[in-house]
Amino acid sequence: MKTKTFNVYTDAGHGWVKVLFKTLIELNIWQDITQYSYVRGEYCFLEEDCDAATLINALRDKGIEPRWKVNHSDKQSKIRSYARYIPPVKL
């Protein structure tokens, strides 16, 4: 099984997985990400409770085991100030 490493950012209250938006498109999960995640530039910061699980499941379906590089801050993360991910309307 292949592996892929992702940066995870946490503060005292929450955590996010940093992933390229194009990865969400390649995995065909971009429409499944919620407004609880954030975006900045070409990156999405997937919230740890639901959206990260969507990523993990999609990776494993492709035979890729995710690995994590955790970056923790005792201060409030600046990720909270990024723009919210706006999920597309599902038809």
Can you describe this structure?
It is a single chain. This protein has 91 residues and is α+β, with helices and mostly antiparallel strands. The chain has one domain: Translation Initiation Factor Eif1, CATH 3.30.780. The protein is built from two helices and six strands, in the order E-E-H-E-E-H-E-E. A six-stranded mixed beta sheet has the order 5-1-2-4-3-6. It is globular and about 35 Å long. The termini are far apart.
Proportion in helices: 10-25%
Strand arrangement, major sheet: 5-1-2-4-3-6
* CATH second-level architecture: 2-Layer Sandwich
Radius of gyration equals 13 Å
The CATH class label is Alpha Beta
Number of helices: 2
The coarse silhouette is globular
Oligomer: single chain
The computed structural class is alpha+beta
Report the major sheet. Answer: 6 strands, mixed
Low-confidence stretches: none
Quote the beta fraction.
35-45%
- In total, the number of strands is 6
**Helix and strand pattern:** EEHEEHEE
Domains, number: 1
Mean pLDDT across every amino acid position: 95
Distance between the termini: 35 Å
CATH topology: Translation Initiation Factor Eif1
